[in-house]
Fold these 2 entries.
Entry 1:
Amino acid sequence: MAMEKTFDAATAESRLFNAWEQAGCFTAGANAKPEASSYCIMIPPPNVTGVLHMGHAFNNTLQDILIRWKRMQGFDTLWQPGCDHAGIATQMVVERELANTQQPSRAEMGREAFLEKVWDWKGKSGGTIINQLKRLGASADFSRTAFTMSGAPGAPADEADGNFHDAVIKVFVEMYNKGLIYRGKRLVNWDPHFETAISDLEVENIETPGHMWHFKYPLAGGATYTYVEKDEDGNVTLEETRDYISIATTRPETMLGDGAVAVHPSDERYAPIVGKLVEIPVGPKEHRRLIPIITDEYPDKDFGSGAVKITGAHDFNDYQVAKRGGIPMYRLMDTKGAMRADGAPYAEEAAKAQAHAKGAEFTENEIDAINLVPEELRGLDRFEARKAVVEQITSEGLAVMITETQTVKDDDGNETEVSQIVPFVENKPIMQPFGDRSKVVIEPMLTDQWFVDAEKVVGPALDAVKDGTVKILPESGEKTYYHWLENIEPWCISRQLWWGHQIPVWYFPGRNKDGSVGDPDGAYDGPLAICASDTKELAAIVKERFNGAIFTEISSDFSAPDNNPMDAFMTNSLLGTNEDYSSLVGFRDPDVLDTWFSSGLWPIGTLGWPNDTQEMATYFPTSTLITGQDILFFWVARMMMMQLAVVDQVPFDTVYLHGLVRDAKGKKMSKSTGNVVDPLDIVDEYGADALRFTNAAMASLGGVLKLDMKRIEGYRNFVTKLWQASSYGDNVIDAFSAERDADAPKATLPLNRWIIGEIAKLREEVDSAFDAFRFNDAANALYAFFWNTFCARYLEFTKPIFHGDDQAAKDETQAVYAWAIDQSLILMHPIMPFVTEEIWNVTDGRGIETGDASKMLIHADWPTYKAADLVDAEAEAEMNWVIAVIDNVRSARAQVNVPAGAQVPMVVTQIDAAGKAYWDRNEALIKRFARIDSLTEMDEAPKGSIAIAAPGASFGLPLAEIIDVAKEKARLEKTLGKLAKELGGLRGRLNNPKFADSAPAEVIAETRANLAAREEEEAKIKEAFERLAEIA
RNA sequence: GGGCGAUUAGCUCAGUGGUAGAGCACUUCGUUGACAUCGAAGGGGUCACAAGUUCGAACCUUGUAUCGCCCA
């Protein structure tokens, strides 16, 4: 059947994809050879609320290239797709939908009903991004699409069969029992909008306009000191008596929770007052707290006044200082970021804090219970409180004042300078943390959270990369990996959300034997906590531990009416004071696990662990992970730690990291800049193959990814080129009618022997590029081969054969042409699956219409032939000679303005035996493409000829009457100039005795051969130049 | 401030010690029967700078400058 004029990507893509999917081409193990090794890629699970963006398109193109390549090679492949449940993002999406459809809010409907809504939403809309991947041609095993919440309680029937939930819970319980997970009070990123802790990854630090206020903290009891400032040379520039220390802050509202003022130990200005007490200048005057001046390495002497207030509960740096110095950390805000309104009146609370400062013992929880917000600020939003605090301090005269001079114009236009004393407030940009979803300012907050003790599990993850078990590409990624893991922090894994894996820990509040609040064990001041994988296991633990006590659970949804954790407290406390419990009432921790905790188990969780599955046996450890370098820490490192901690094996052997896809100028794509490119728009306009080829060509190791539309257009043209060359084979030379074979046809013509060898070289190049994850090298090799070698040379050179009457030559060339196209399609298929499959199909009706997967290109055998076997050096030398003659003639003609269409005569003055043979065999071809009508042998070229030098031969075009002699002279002079430069370099090297001594023999031989060739060329051109000089 | 990286043709980028490359853009020419989403022929680079190692450096070392990214 004749090929259409052009490739219609829009209709072909969906038709081909459906045919592949229906024929089961993507399923695990499809096209595997018997006894094949396995090759597995885990998709980095996109967010279930996500839509496809360029980053996904790039990332998944690379994965698909590798999978298709390995699948064609006969490996037992699995590309495992799926999504993560994205706790915060999904809750946000569903809550927004509830609001838009006038349904009750999350809080109104309660936890259980809300989760039902989430599952409904997931069923309706959760598959968006996975379906979008199909538009790219992604050949993942969609029948295995996984979800990090599958199998969770409350999951609908179609999500209940997965067991990701079991895996997550089992890992938590095991790590808890091994002491790798603990609960504690620690500073976390708190999102006041969603009222949950969030991970560092979900925080965006953005520079925003802010203010730096300067306040005076008076020394206690009116004490004074001499404050001295010196310049670089030690000269005194300021000396005065002060009764205060000056503090600079961007967050005055946190002053209420200050625990100390810190200065650098080497700061001489404050040395006299270190250890003294200062008064926090806010709050009711009669209850002002006193805090100490301490030393710490953290303050920067040159920043602000050099003195820093320490608010351990609301700042990450201060937290470290407070921990080092044993400074109390007072929490000032509630979960919404408003100033606390709980607790006793301020006077009472301030007294507690002062008592603690003087040495009274308080537990962590007791300190946390202290509310140091004065009555008039309680309940205010933090930004409102900030204004109020600034106002209070300023009105009390405790702001640092400066003189500001302004020029003012009066009504008559006279300018006068007016000075006034104003509070010192610097307007300056400050880095502020924002929640990436909520867009509100993140509040560092001291809260109770669950943590993985990362330090205890980091060792094996470090070793696996250090000893080469796992490779990270590009190599610089390994350095970053070490740096982070060697300085690892505890990992906060609890989130105050409803959508997620609920933490499998139950609390049993009660009363200690001495009557104090505590757990039924009487062990410590928190409630008793028991970790178990489910309530059945929990009941067994309770029964055994408390002499046969029955376990009764109350709901942990304390937002529900009539449900209060105090119920459990009351019930348990009524149960007597000895160990004879008959029943214990507990509730489950309401928090859920960080989504990354489940994503961290993606490799084993998707393969069915903890069950002993065939997939685990076959595909784990997996092979290659391709992901963005921005989640090296958050995901890659955690997968390493968790898989090693849980199954004692690395999750993959190679990690390929890539950067962010940017616009053509290198700017980040963002909605606000308006430079976002939708990959599906590109697919619509240029076809998926063009986008994929662009992605591959951009993917140099460690390279920056700049997406340029011009480039996509160029690769769309390449798709067309491939189509046209195939259509020439089909419609013009009828190459595809005969039977063909995977092996190269027998060929006698040098042209055909040559292209077979070129294909073999290409196959090696493509394989070694893919092996080394150099997708760009593979793409460039394919592009250069097909455009410059196959189309510009081979295809053109077949024309004289089909215009001639040598039937044997025609038959052979048809066979070789068809084979070369087939091989090109195979080698290009991983990068451009659609157009290649379509051509494969229409040139032989193979597979797509019949649904026979074994005849589709996607399951064709990847070739293994070697250049060493298929390259014919003789044929190669001959074709290179022919090409050199044609190129030289064309170039010379163009430069001296011989009309391109003119047929001209040529003379040969000298030619060696090889050259003669080459000429004789390729005369028709050379004449056609060099536009030569005759060749005459002469001893000497006619005066005024154009000189053509070829290896072993000298030609001339006797066109004295047509050409511009001056131009020809200029051309030859230019060539001689270039040659002279090259010759100089080559002779310089060869004449240097040290070069002969130190350089490898092959380099010397190569240099000599090169010199000889250049010298021959120079001699010919000089001769021609002299001949030309004779006539002009 | 700490860590990682970059600087090569007008633009976007390859190039891990042996004659500086590609694509795009540019100039000139072209309705020769695969293809104008094309063809032919060209121009264009002190490889950021400086010093060093080497027979030989875009490439290795050190420093400087500028620019990114990540973490504070």
Note: Residues 505-590 of chain A form one domain.
Entry 2:
Amino acid sequence: MRIGQVADELGINTKTIRYYESIELIPAVPRTPAGYRDYTDEDIDRLEFIRTGRRLGLSLDEIRQVLHLRERGEQPCDYVLDVVHRQLRDIDRHIRELAALRDELHRLLDTAHQPSEAPGNPAPRYCRLVEAAS
Amino acid sequence: MRIGQVADELGINTKTIRYYESIELIPAVPRTPAGYRDYTDEDIDRLEFIRTGRRLGLSLDEIRQVLHLRERGEQPCDYVLDVVHRQLRDIDRHIRELAALRDELHRLLDTAHQPSEAPGNPAPRYCRLVEAAS
DNA sequence: GTAGGGGTTCCAGTTGCTGGAAGCTCCAGG
DNA sequence: CCTGGAGCTTCCAGCAACTGGAACCCCTAC
């Protein structure tokens, strides 16, 4: 199967697949006589695994670790569990930060409806919206 | 004021300030006879403005737009309002996605407590945790 | 024969910094 | 006067994870 079809089926860019090969995340697959990459179902499994790992928030390097562990015959699930736990912690923190930012932006929009030159307010240097957030 | 002190006061890296200068987000400030950058209070205001904009989620390019608008004597607040509205939409979507991912990871951890070789389950190729998420 | 839609390689750019190396400047202590 | 160390300078390179573009090859259909 050629790279374009693989990309279509998995919903990845062909560039991405070649990139994964270039960083040796996937092995170099055999070529057709014309020099085209020729992928097997196993290659596609591997790519799908990578895609899922990415979707779960694993970095390419973490995915690489999992693949290496697997190649050495070890069970990578403990490692994955660690990563997933860490990931959950990061996500919770990220959500909290985003929510705080959202609230701040909402407050900012509220001030946008205030008169811009309330008595006693200094003239804004750049943009009173942004300066109000300092 | 020299770059180190500015960096300390604003809580930015000196490298970052030089980087901003290199991409012409801030002007090149005058130098002392020894060649050291010498910052005025106005420069620091500008940097603080940038820092706040970044904290609000504006990209450096968006910040650049605001600064340019301001230099041309236009009121950038409408532009900033647009950016902030878009930003809010993006944040909400991002939070929703992260929450969905979090739930998925939680479900994943639940399956981690299931027996790994339930009858009828295919043997995992790489890691049953990740494969369960496909 | 030629137009098109694939594929190939390699280089460079994206965003927002950050690290490191090699060298200059300044100031305080001995 | 010398020396050490902190802070400054420049330039180069790298991070993550791709993505775009140029220039060229291959295959099929009309």
Note: Residues 13, 15-16, 19, 23, 34-36, 54, 59-61 of chain A lie near DNA strand D (CB under 10 Å from a C1').
